[in-house]
Amino acid sequence: MTIKPLIILPDPILRQVSAPIERVDDELLKLADDMLETMYDAPGIGLAGIQIGVPRRILVIDVAREDEEKQPQVFINPEIVKSSDERSVYEEGCLSIPEYYAEVERPATVTVKHIGRDGKEHLVEADGLLATCLQHEIDHLNGVLFIDHISRLKREMVIKKFTKAAKAKAV
């Protein structure tokens, strides 16, 4: 397994819409393993393909607490097919926007259709942290960042900060 470099804001690739995956093969499963390794190393609880520069509809998640055994999950071509009217608020962060956190309101529960590592279609009903994480990572596949769910003023300040940091790094 290989740890991949993370794409960081303001890189425009983060706004790209990821392409559907045609088939589950060894190459895709290796990508999933590399993504899990990268996510654990960061450390994070979710990672979308686009965050390592791969614009394909794949994401990995593990919301197990530190004192629990790892529970890696792979979602290929995930799609939210149902979401609740009830809302919940979580403080979200993102590996592509390091060390920035903000409260985001999203549906409290979602049902996600996806293809698993086994190449078969699955349906997951999620609530709590898993529901939030799935929505956050699926947003990535659609070119949406969690900062798009906060006020325009806060979003512009974050983008400005990361743009300035990227320019300073390039010098």
From TrEMBL:
This is Peptide deformylase. It catalyses: N-terminal N-formyl-L-methionyl-[peptide] + H2O = N-terminal L-methionyl-[peptide] + formate. NCBIfam families: pept_deformyl, PRK00150.1-3. CDD domains: Pep_deformylase (cd00487). Binds 1 Fe(2+) ion. Fe cation binds at residues 94, 136, 140. PANTHER family: PEPTIDE DEFORMYLASE. It comes from Neorhizobium turbinariae. Belongs to the polypeptide deformylase family. Pfam families: Pep_deformylase. Its EC number is 3.5.1.88. InterPro entries: Peptide_deformylase, Peptide_deformylase_sf. Keywords: Hydrolase, Iron, Metal-binding, Protein biosynthesis. The active site is at residue 137. One of its GO terms (molecular function) is peptide deformylase activity. Removes the formyl group from the N-terminal Met of newly synthesized proteins. Requires at least a dipeptide for an efficient rate of reaction. N-terminal L-methionine is a prerequisite for activity but the enzyme has broad specificity at other positions. Its cofactor is Fe(2+).
